[in-house]
Amino acid sequence: MKSFTIVVVDDHPILLEGVINFINKLANFNIVASASDGECGLNACIELSPDIVIADIDMPVMNGVDMVKELQKHNKNTKIIFLTSHVNLDTFRQATLVDHDGFLFKEDAVNELEDCLNKVVLDEKFLSNAFENFIEQNKEHFSKLEEIDLVLAQLTKSEMRVLKQIAEGKTTAQIADALFNSMKTIENHRYNICKKMNVEGNNKLTYFAIENRLHILDY
User: Fold this and answer.
1) Global pTM?
2) Domains plus CATH for the chain?
3) What are 108-118's pLDDT values in tens digits?
4) In Å, how far from its chain's centre is CA 175?
């Protein structure tokens, strides 16, 4: 019977060790590498082309979502299993939008990982009950993020750069300096952003940008 190769990527050493020890007891799966951040995980996956990568979502250097997006540019055949504690709702939602084969919560990993692996290698998708419940519990928040994305999609690259600066709490003068533009140009961008977002005034725009800072910066 075929032995499926796996790369495990997680920045929590105890969980990483636990997943490795668990998989090592399974007959048909072989861990070929592990990593504690997304960049090292990506490099391992590009080099080894594993059958499966099990990746945390929130990690230093490069998060699991960005790692998987980059990996899929190089290798679309590697099966993707996300393993998360769902702390950051925005990053969680981004992960759901990436093409993946399995989704597990860390607290359920011991009970569900073997079933997940067995389904994924048969080209079946595995979504735990806890995953679907979590989506349902937070659907209002996810719906809000979808609405924000529709608005952000209307902005030009220049306007998006300005909005990200606003989200960082910078003034028009500071943004002009950072982007090597005149204050008049930045003011025009702010006006156009307000118009597209149906927001009246710079104060409301600033409030919106700061309130949704993480989502805007990750967009």
Assistant:
1) 0.75
2) 4-137 (3.40.50.2300), 144-218 (1.10.10.10)
3) 888 899 999 99
4) 27
